Structures are given as structure tokens and as C-alpha cells.
């Protein structure tokens, strides 16, 4: 029996670290999940255990190489962003992988923005809302100013996906999907590092930028295979859609955060858009992707629990609750509605008295109606003059019948689809270097779509 050609993809999240093997039809033929106990940095703040992560990559690959039924042709990585690994001349980490949730010193932040033109001007130029440590460029700035001796020892600061790639290729590189995501490093207008990077002398600490679809020869022993340079996970998750669909679209990726992504809108961010939590991501071909964000997944979780407790129900009941148009009609007549023409970061549902609803079904429909109206306002920020006619929704809300019907009704002039795909970030990382490991054409059925017609819902 011939060994099946596969690509190995490490998908590294904050909580779960996953390894997948995909065959040439992009089916998962092997997977492993690991979780590591966090360590702490010098201030006692929790952070990723780099040593555990490094050993896990090597151990997992050694295991895979021993599986005679598979032949690993390539390895790639998708990982969370806003995290830097600091390497010395010998290629060894010299500092912890600082947590992007670590509070940023206010004085250092104030001094930085005063020095470089003020928050609004700087945020507009770098398409990076003021996010403290989530602006990974400011992590490097902090290291320089708070730990100058340690900073001097740093040869390269690599984003996490590129560090993982370095472990196997031995080559240090930078990648635009990591640099371009709220790092405060990139000047989007001039398509280069922002001038502050040069003025601080930090350009010397940043490895050369490689194309996201480049594959390198492997240094780590095994059968002959190629190594991708790694991708920021949100940008990787967009790749299957870019590969499969040429007509302009918006992707609403739903989870704890609901992020709308428009790869067909590169218009500069305005002050108003920045204030409404818009930013740019960078897709794997180097083009900006305008994005807007809502914390709707978290709000949905909290308010569903509140409804369940008030009506003495199990919250699990709402997972598969069917859409009832007549309930929406009654709610429109009896309850105040979230204004979908005005942007807001949170819905009015949290302040709604649950005693005004006849039952839990009615209350839950109102919650989803409010969240959809929020989403409409957020997504419209990205549409602009772009010729977008399709909206894809993936993640948790794509499985919510009420949400999808109401969204289709709100965007009645567009085609609205629920999209499902196993492990989108990992698939994207595999697709980015398709030509280096896969002799077959890219399959057209990677993404499963379910169409929602506005005619099946009601006008809201």
C-alpha cells in the first residue's frame, strides 16, 4: 500500500495546540490536540511556555514521520498574533513569550503616542486601534525602554508563526499577515514599516519579509519536505474563501468576537471607523483587508444564561431553537428594537427587563434580533462602494437558524450563506503553499454552504 501524501499543519491557539494532517483533497486524516500549563514572566504574569511548545512541535513531527501510511510533503503553521519571540545570535529565545493581555504601562504609552504624532494620527496610519500589548510593535518598544540590556541581545524579534517555522527551517523571516494585524508597525498608505520603526532602530531587529506562499527547505531531519513560513490565524482562515470565490464577498467570522472582513475594501481608515473598532488585517497576498469587530459572541453567551436562569430553562435548549417569524412580528410591535442604522458596541438587550417577555423563546428571539441589528451596523461600515453581493458567515452563529434568517432579511439585496469548514485556519495554511506539496487542483468543495433567502424570513 502506497503512503498517502499529506501536509502537516500546526494550528496554535492560546488554549489548544493542534496538529492536522491533510490529504491532497484537504480531508483531515490525522489530528492531535495538546494543552500546556502556562508559565510566568519576570513580573509573574501568565505567558506561553515556549519550551513546551518547541518540544511538542519536534515530538509530534517525529511521531508523524514514523507513521508508514503517510508521507509528509510539507509543514506549515497558523498561530495567534500579537506575540513576539526574541532570539539571540545563536537562535535561542532570550525572553518569555509575553502575553498580549499583559497591561501596558500608561506612561510609556502616553510618551510613545506623544512622540509619534498623537493617537489618532498614528492609529490611522498604522490601521491599529490603541490596544496596548495587543499592538505587538509596542511590546518590542517596551523591551527596548524597560530592559535595554536584554534588548541589545536580541538579534531578531519573530512573530509566533514565524518562530515555529524557524524551528524547522532554520531561517528567520517576517510575514505580512502577522505584521499587518494591529501591530502598530506597518504604514498602510506607503506599504512599508512605519517611520517609528526606523527612528527607533528596530528595523534591524526584524527579519526579512518573505511571501506568505513561500516554502523553505527543511532543516529538521525527516523525509524530504518543505516548510511554510507560517501565517496569522485570522488571515489564514480567510484563504479558503479567497481561493474558492472570485466574486466580491464579506466574511463574518463568528465566535467570541464577530469579525467582519472585506478583502475588497482597501480604502483608508477614517477617524470615525477607528472609533467604531475598525482596523486592517493583511491577506496572504499582501493586500489590506478592512475589518470591523463586535464582542457579540461573549454577549450572546452571557445573555443566554440570563434568559435560561430567568425562565428556569437549560441554556442548551437555545442551541437548536427554530426560527419563528411570527415571534419576530410580535416583538417588532411590542418591544423597542436595536437601531441597525447606528453603530453600537453592545446591544440594548442587557438592559431589557425579561419580565416583559411571555416566555424564553420570545426573549431569545429578541436577543438574536438585537445582535443581528448590531451586526448589520458593524458590517455596513466595511461595505462602502465595494461591489459585494455575497456574505458568508462561519463559526458559531452560522449554525443558529434565527440569526441566519434575520441576517438574510436585513441584507435582502445580497446572497447570505452559512459556511462550514473543518479547521479553517489550518486549511488556509495548507492552501497557502498548495503548489509545494499537492499535485492535484484545489478542490471546489472545501467549504460547505447553506443559502438563506430573505424571502423565507421577514423584513426587519
- Compute the number of helices: 15
Q: Can you tell me the CATH class of the largest domain?
A: Alpha Beta
Shape: globular
For the record, what is the CATH homologous superfamily label of the largest domain? ATPase, nucleotide binding domain
Question: Within the CATH hierarchy, at the fold level, what is the topology of the largest domain?
Answer: Nucleotidyltransferase, domain 5
User: Fraction of residues in helices?
Assistant: 25-40%
Mean pLDDT: 93
Strand tally is: 20
Distance between the termini: 58 Å
Largest sheet: 7 strands, mixed
SS content category: alpha/beta
Q: Calculate Rg over CA atoms.
A: 23 Å
The domain tally reads 2
CATH architecture of the largest domain: 2-Layer Sandwich
Name the assembly state.
Answer: single chain
Catalogue the unreliable spans. none
Strand content: 15-25%
Domain Carbohydrate kinase FGGY C-terminal: 247-435
Family: Belongs to the FGGY kinase family.
Protein name: Carbohydrate kinase
Organism: Mucilaginibacter glaciei
Overview in brief:
The protein is α/β, with parallel strands linked by helices and 460 residues long. The chain contains 15 helices and 20 strands. The chain is 34% helix and 21% strand.
What features would you describe in this structure?
This is Carbohydrate kinase. InterPro entries: ATPase_NBD, FGGY_C_2, FGGY_Carb_Kinase, FGGY_N. The chain is of the alpha/beta class and 460 residues long. The protein has two domains: 4-229, 2-Layer Sandwich (Nucleotidyltransferase, domain 5); 232-460, 2-Layer Sandwich (Nucleotidyltransferase, domain 5), CATH 3.30.420. The protein is built from 15 helices and 20 strands. The protein has helices spanning 50-65, 106-115, 119-126, 136-146, 148-153, 160-169, 176-179, 195-199, 233-244, 271-275, 296-310, 325-334, 360-383, 401-410, 424-432, and strands spanning 4-12, 17-22, 28-34, 39-40, 46-47, 70-79, 84-87, 156-159, 186-187, 192-193, 215-217, 226-228, 231-232, 249-254, 258-262, 278-282, 288-294, 390-395, 415-420, 448-452. The strands form five sheets. Strands 1, 2, 3, 6, 11, 12 and 13 form a seven-stranded mixed sheet that branches. A seven-stranded mixed sheet has the order 16-17-15-14-18-19-20. The chain has a two-stranded antiparallel ribbon with strand order 4-5. β9 (186-187) and β10 form a beta hairpin. α9 packs across α15, α11 packs antiparallel against α13 and α13 (360-383) packs across α14. The protein is globular. The N and C termini lie far apart (58 Å).
